[in-house]
């Protein structure tokens, strides 16, 4: 009875050794668009079926069609790289993952005996990096002096911030980390913000535009022709100011005998009388007056 027991187990072991065994480390793989991903795969083939070629295929979501994407003998597509062999390693690497790469994959083993073996491989999910913004202020617009918190996220992390990120402003590296805190914002803080995986700079999020709004500043009056010239009676006053959003209202004042008189509402004003003038500008965040200019207009 004991000898028979060992004989049965040896026979069973022989059967198992002549079976295909394909192992994938993960059945569902999540990757960020633009990154690289590896499908770790190992296999054991029956002793009487020598593998001569390993093929990977891809079945796109919501379709019944499939196509080969990689081979152990030659490169079919440059982004799909077979990194295994024909012995025990059947791994595949995808470079610069795209949205269209999502879906089910399969691996096929062609043998010397022309008896191919095929098995389903992992399903790939492709996601985008997203930027979440929170403000300390409840105002809709971002104003000068406000503070904002930006967080780079991808759903592959399952809601946990575990990936390493790099932040960019207008394409230039700015910060490393999952979040960046922008405090006491100024007009120079305005720009296009993106984040990417630190190990895959091609995996860039969509652009988040931060536009810091502020009231009028640097309001000046340009006199044409310049003061000191001999223009006769033709002066032109041009009011300019920096503001975001742009200046909504221009008001020209003529100062005579200590009183200010409203004389115009356009950026350009043509005075007729010798006196002092200034312009006042406003947008939704405030107003500012220019310095006073004194004109000496010759009578005709």
From TrEMBL:
It comes from the Eukaryota. Residues 122-213, 216-294 form the Ig-like domain. It holds the Pfam family V-set. PANTHER family: B-CELL RECEPTOR CD22-RELATED, VASCULAR CELL ADHESION MOLECULE 1. This is Ig-like domain-containing protein. It comes from Oreochromis aureus.
